[in-house]
Design a protein that fits this description.
With 510 residues, the chain is an alpha/beta fold. The protein has two domains: 174 residues, no CATH class; 277 residues, Metallo-dependent phosphatases (Purple Acid Phosphatase, chain A, domain 2). Helices cover 39% and strands 20% of the residues. The chain has eleven helices and 19 strands. The strands form three sheets. The chain has a seven-stranded mixed sheet with strand order 10-9-8-7-17-18-19, covered by helices on one side. Helix 2 packs across helix 4 and helix 2 packs across helix 5.
Length: 510
């Protein structure tokens, strides 16, 4: 064994420590230089892409804000309206008058369109206008003030809606308050620019050249401008009602039909049908109720045109017509219309064979199974009407078996009313827009009424306006049998002619 001195060992360690760096250098040269890790930085986002994304957030947020709160309800003259701002490439103003159609005005050029929805006529303001025709001269200024007030209110609401929508969406997307506030500010600037553009391109003469759609498309050339309609229509319907009264008095005095003279105990029924939103009908019906001392009014349907909620206000004069009102649903009346009428005082809605006794007569009827304005459903045609007639006849048989026979059956479609042949002495219907009378196979008399509304707006579609038709039916109070009826035919829109003729059933003729 060789012993190494401690001093020698320490000397070797010092030599090794001095040589170690050199050995490391030699090793690196021999095996190649080791690569150091390089920290790679993410590429900076494209500024154009960032700007485009922010613009999308601004536009979408502003649009959502307008959809949620960007509308205001404003009374404009006698109308209740809803004003709304909508994004648009063409600008302009669109006035929706449901269910008649719409008219468009090239009022301005801007990426915003003003939508004005006419909800309904306010009965009190409309009546005040009718009672004080002198207010028509100031109606234009009143409407202008209302529109200015509504537009200002809409502008304030739209600013709040646009800023709130863009800010909220920016906060949801970027999660940074500064970015969200930037989006809100850009949305406000965009709305202000659009408003300034609309103001700079405002064209007040656009109201003289409107573009009509829907049923209004035939109105300008055939009816006249709005001022003439408002100022002259009330005069027309008042004169027509006065003509009815005068002709009725003349008929009472000069009648040469002594074969039948109704006495005070006679039950008098006024049959009307297919009014189709003609407001003149209410004055005519009210006049007939007074002149003929009517005990009950029977409406065999199609009082409305589309059965929409906006039309419901048209029915409000019914409780004040002066007689109980019996009604069945037509193919232009919705079930919502039926619900609205059920809540009215002095109105009796017949459906599903339901019977009611009024003025000593027992009525039963059924609503039309088809609803024409609802094009999402396939109409059932005659098969549906036949089924409705069968259901009504079954209900009448049950009531006759129970000792409470029905005197008058009511349906809208004549084909449905024919199903009651043999189970009721008289059936009333409408739908055809012209009067007709027939005695069916088993002895039931079917009376079809014409249009008491002169076919509504359809009156302007043909060469001559359709007449306004109604009938007065006279019943013996003891036997409840039909004794006679008067057919009343008045000139249609714009006409003031009248024709009244008295008819007797074959068994009552001498």
């Amino acid at each position: 064994m060789v012993r190494v001195p401690v001093a020698a060992t320490a000397a070797v360690r010092r030599l090794t420590d001095r040589a170690r760096p050199a050995l490391h250098t030699l090793a690196r040269r021999r095996h190649g230089r080791r690569k150091r890790p390089v920290l790679e930085l993410a590429p900076r986002p494209n500024p154009y892409a960032r700007a485009f994304g922010l613009l999308c957030v601004v536009l979408l947020g502003a649009w959502l804000g307008l959809l949620v709160v960007g509308n205001v309800r404003v009374p404009v003259g006698p109308m209740n309206t809803t004003m709304t701002l909508r994004p648009s490439l063409t600008g302009g103003t669109k006035i929706n008058i449901s269910p008649l159609g719409a008219l468009e005005l090239r009022s301005h050029e801007a990426p915003l369109r003003l939508d004005v929805d006419v909800d309904q006529l306010d009965p009190e303001r409309s009546q005040a206008l009718v009672d004080h025709p002198e207010r028509l001269s100031g109606l234009q200024d009143e409407v202008t003030r209302d529109v200015e007030h509504g537009t200002l209110d809409l502008a304030v609401r739209s600013c709040i809606a646009v800023v709130a929508g863009a800010t909220a969406l920016g906060l949801a997307v970027y999660r940074r308050p500064r970015r969200a506030l930037t989006a809100g500010g850009l949305a406000l600037a965009l709305l202000a620019t659009s408003g300034a553009t609309a103001f700079a391109t405002w064209n007040p003469k656009s109201v003289l050249e409107p573009k009509y759609s829907g049923l209004l498309s035939s109105a300008p050339s055939l009816v006249g401008d709005a001022r003439n309609i408002v100022s002259e229509f009330d005069v027309y319907q008042k004169e027509l009602a006065r003509l009815v009264r005068n002709v009725t008095k003349l008929y009472d005095v000069t009648s040469t039909l002594p074969v039948y003279q109704p006495d005070p105990t006679t039950i008098r029924v006024l049959h009307v049908s297919d009014i189709h939103l003609n407001p003149a009908s209410w004055k005519i019906i009210s006049s007939l109720v007074q002149q003929y001392a009517i005990d009950v009014i029977v409406d065999s349907g199609d009082t409305m045109d589309h059965g929409s909620a906006a039309e419901n206000g048209f029915l409000d004069p019914i409780p004040d017509l002066g007689a109980p009102y019996v009604w069945v649903r037509g193919n232009h009346d919705s079930r919502e219309t039926q619900k609205y009428l059920r809540r009215m005082k002095n109105v009796h809605v017949l459906d599903d064979g339901r019977a009611v006794t009024i003025a000593g007569l027992r009525f039963a009827g059924i609503g039309d199974p088809q609803f024409t304005p609802d094009r999402s459903n396939t109409p059932g045609g005659d098969a549906a009407e036949d089924l409705a007639g069968a259901r009504l006849a079954s209900a009448l048989r049950d009531q006759r078996a129970a000792g409470t026979p029905v005197d008058i059956a009511v349906a809208h479609e004549p084909s449905a009313a024919r199903g009651t042949d043999g189970v009721a002495p008289l059936a009333l219907a409408g739908h055809l827009h012209h009067e007709d009378m027939e005695v069916m196979k088993y002895g039931t008399r079917l009376r079809v009424e014409g249009s008491t509304g002169g076919s509504g707006l359809r009156a302007v579609e043909g060469q001559y306006p359709d007449p306004i038709e109604a009938s007065v039916l006279y019943f013996d109070r003891d036997t409840r049998h039909l004794q006679a009826w008067d057919e009343i035919k008045l000139g249609g829109l714009g006409l003031t002619t009248a024709e009244i003729s008295r008819h007797l059933p074959e068994e009552n003729r001498p």
